[in-house]
Every structure is written in structure tokens, then in C-alpha cells.
Amino acid sequence: MSKVKLEIFDNFAKQYFNELKCPSSNLINAMKYSFFSGGKRIRAQLVYIVSEMFGVSIQESNKIAFAIEAIHTYSLIHDDLPAMDNDSLRRGVPTCHIKYNDATAILAGDALQSIAFKVLQDLDIKDVKVLKKVNSILADCSGTDGMVAGQQLDIDGENNNLDIDNLKIVHINKTAKMFCASMLIPYTVSNNYNKNIAKTLEHIAILTGLCFQIKDDILDVTKSTKELGKTSAKDISSNKSTYVSLLGIEKANELLNTMTYEILESIMSIESSSVNCSKLKNIIKLVINRNH
């Protein structure tokens, strides 16, 4: 994300939190602690990029990006809890339940989830059907047809040797579906909706999410805890199947390159409709080439 867009996003988020009605300062502080603890903001970047591609205003983009990042942050808070991944470090700082406590972390995640849907209600959309579709996309991608289901599949897969196809199902839901929300919601609120382009964007989002996960698995065994900002080799210690454990680093990199090529081919089909996709290509490169 450009420094300008990042500053615009952070200012919007800070203002939203400052205006949020809540009688518990401890709850708000826990929410803000995790939300502003750093991170690559890749999902927010996707929102701004797709918005720019299809003419969505910065005001609406801010709301969508905030909703997506609120859901993402809630998922990280809950993912780090002792009952889940039991991690003490996230983005280089103590996780929410370590900084506060388990109960406050759970409630902070719950609250972030609820305000994500609240902020979407503030979108300047006259067509009620479009607003309902936007909320349905976020609910599906973050819930039982997406991220939460993927998390459960991930837990179910512990101490089981998943094959590559079942591992793909886990991460399409756990990771890639929120990439779908990041791209499909801004496109849905644009005035340029076309079912074929929407389908292509969804395909790109799924592949980008899978590439993100493959790269995560590679970094998990090649980088230190300090470099990653989170506990390294965590999946190995939890006896989870990963792309590296199933394929090895070399084959995992080959799969990453194959998916990247497929993403770029799909982007070309959108470019044929006279849409500037240069920034979308750049963020794909960021996902593939990142070192943490």
C-alpha cells in the first residue's frame, strides 16, 4: 500500500475507533492494540487496488478496507488463543491474550467482528440488493463458507496426514476466502459489475490466497521467529500438514510459481477489457516475494 493510502486508512480507522461508543476503555484498548500492531495490510491493499480499477471512491474504499481488516484482526486474536494455536507473539509483539487476558482477547475479537458489519451498513449504496450482497459476501467468506470453517478444518487436520487436495480445501477457506471478500466487495459496489469479471476476480483471489499460504509455509521453515515476527515452525510442532511437509521446499516453490503464472494469465483477461491492472500485478509480486 502506498504511504498515502496507508495514512488515509490509518486515519480513518483511528477516527472510527475514537468515535465508537463503548463503556469499556479496556475493550477498546485491546481492539486497537491488535488492529494497529502492524502487519502488511495486504487485504486492505487489495480493496484499494480493486476500488481504483473500477472507480470506487476513496470514502467507500476506506469503509470496506476497515471492515476487512477488522475481520482479519479478530481472526488473528482468536487464532492465537491457548485453545487454538496458543501463540504468544504476533507481528513482533505479545499477542492480545498475553497483553491483556484470554477473556478480553475473546471479547475484543467478537467486537471487531461486529463493527465490521456495522461499518458496511454505512456504505453509500442506494440499491438495497447490492448492500445485502455486500454483507452476504463478507458473512460467507468469513464464516461457515469461508474462514471460520477453514479454521475448524485446520484444527481437525492436526495429527492427521492430509493429502494435497484436502490441504488446499483447508486454505481456500481459511485464507483465500478473505482475499475473495477483499476483491469482490469493492467490485460489487462499483458501477461496472459484470459476472464474468467477478468470476475472474474470485479466481485470482483464491489463487492469491493459496500463494500467500504456500509462501507462509516456506517462510515458516526458512526464517527465524525474529524475522517472521511470530513463532517459527509452529505448524510442524502442532503436527499440521503444510505444503512444505507434503511437497518439500523445492516442489512447494514450483507450485507457487505455477499458480503465479495462472494468476497473471487471469489478470490479462481483465486487462483486455481496458482495465489498468498494474497495481494488482504489483501486489501479487509482493505476496510471492515477501520475506516475512
Kindly describe this structure.
The chain is mostly helical and 292 residues long. It has a single domain, classed as Farnesyl Diphosphate Synthase (Orthogonal Bundle). The protein is built from 14 helices and two strands; from the N terminus they run ααααββαααααααααα. α13 packs antiparallel against α14. It is globular. The model has no long low-confidence stretch (mean pLDDT 94).
Instruction: Write out the strand line-up for the largest beta sheet, numbering strands in chain order.
Output: 1-2
CATH superfamily caption: Farnesyl Diphosphate Synthase
Fraction of residues in helix: over 70%
If classified by CATH, what would the architecture be? Orthogonal Bundle
* Main sheet properties: 2 strands, antiparallel
| Domain unit count | 1
Tell me the strand percentage band.
under 5%
Mean pLDDT: 94
Query: Any idea of the CATH topology?
Result: Farnesyl Diphosphate Synthase
In one word, what is the shape?
globular
Strand-pairing-aware structural class: mainly alpha
What is the straight-line distance between the termini? 16 Å
Q: Over the alpha carbons, how many angstroms does the gyration radius reach? A: 18 Å
What top-tier CATH class fits best? Mainly Alpha
Q: Please, how many helices?
A: 14
Number of strands: 2
Which H/E pattern describes the elements? HHHHEEHHHHHHHHHH
- The low-confidence runs, each spanning 5 or more residues with pLDDT under 50, are none
GO molecular function, one term: prenyltransferase activity
Protein name: Octaprenyl-diphosphate synthase
GO cellular component, one term: cytoplasm
Cofactor: Mg(2+)
